[in-house]
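User: Please fill in residues for this 144-position structure.
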C-alpha cells in the first residue's frame, strides 16, 4: 500500500464546449482524469442535507463531478483536513488513495458522478477511523 497524499487531492477543471445549444463537458483518461478509469457510478436521489462516505480506500483513486445541485466534501488524513464545495459540472475533485472522506450537505437534487480507478472491492474499504490512523502510522514509519 502506498502512503496517503492529501495534498495531491485537488479540484480539476473539466474542459467544456459551450454554444447556444448548451454545454458539453468531456474527460480524457490520463489527461483530465489522473488515472485509468475502471468503473463509474453515480449518486442521485440523496435527501437534502444527507451525508455519505465516512471511509477511506486502500488503493482506489476517484474523481467526483457534481452534475446537479451541490455537495461538500471533507477530506482528511491523520493530520489535517481540507474541505471542498462542489456545485458545478465544470470542476471535478480528485481524491487520492488512503484519504478519509465525508460527503455532506447534499442539496438541490444532487446528482454526482464518480469515476474510479478500480472495480468495486469491499476489501479495499477502511471503515473505522482508528484502523485508518493505524495504517497511516505504519505507512509513515515505512517511509522512515
Ligand atoms: P458505499 O461505497 O459505502 O457508498 P457511500 O460511501 O456513498 O455511502 O456503497 C454503498 C453500497 O453500494 C454498498 O453496499 C456497496 C454498494 N456498491 C456497489 O455494489 N458497487 C459500487 O461500485 C459502489 C460504489 C457501491
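Assistant: Residues filled in for all 144 positions:
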Amino acid at each position: 500500500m502506498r502512503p496517503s497524499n492529501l495534498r495531491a487531492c485537488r479540484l480539476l477543471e473539466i474542459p467544456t464546449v459551450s454554444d447556444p445549444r448548451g454545454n458539453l463537458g468531456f474527460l480524457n483518461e490520463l489527461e483530465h482524469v489522473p488515472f485509468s478509469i475502471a468503473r463509474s457510478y453515480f449518486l442521485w436521489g440523496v435527501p437534502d442535507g444527507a451525508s455519505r462516505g465516512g471511509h477511506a480506500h486502500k488503493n482506489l483513486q476517484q474523481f467526483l463531478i457534481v452534475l446537479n445541485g451541490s455537495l461538500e466534501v471533507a477530506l482528511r488524513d491523520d493530520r489535517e483536513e481540507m474541505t471542498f464545495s462542489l456545485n458545478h459540472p465544470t470542476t471535478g475533485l480528485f481524491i487520492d488513495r488512503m484519504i478519509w472522506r465525508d460527503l455532506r450537505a447534499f442539496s438541490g437534487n444532487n446528482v454526482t458522478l464518480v469515476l474510479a480507478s478500480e472495480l468495486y472491492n469491499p476489501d479495499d474499504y477502511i471503515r473505522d477511523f482508528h484502523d485508518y490512523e493505524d495504517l497511516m502510522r505504519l505507512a509513515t514509519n515505512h517511509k522512515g
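For context: Strands lie at 10-13, 16-19, 22-25, 39-44, 52-57, 62-76, 81-86, 91-95, 100-116, 125-126.
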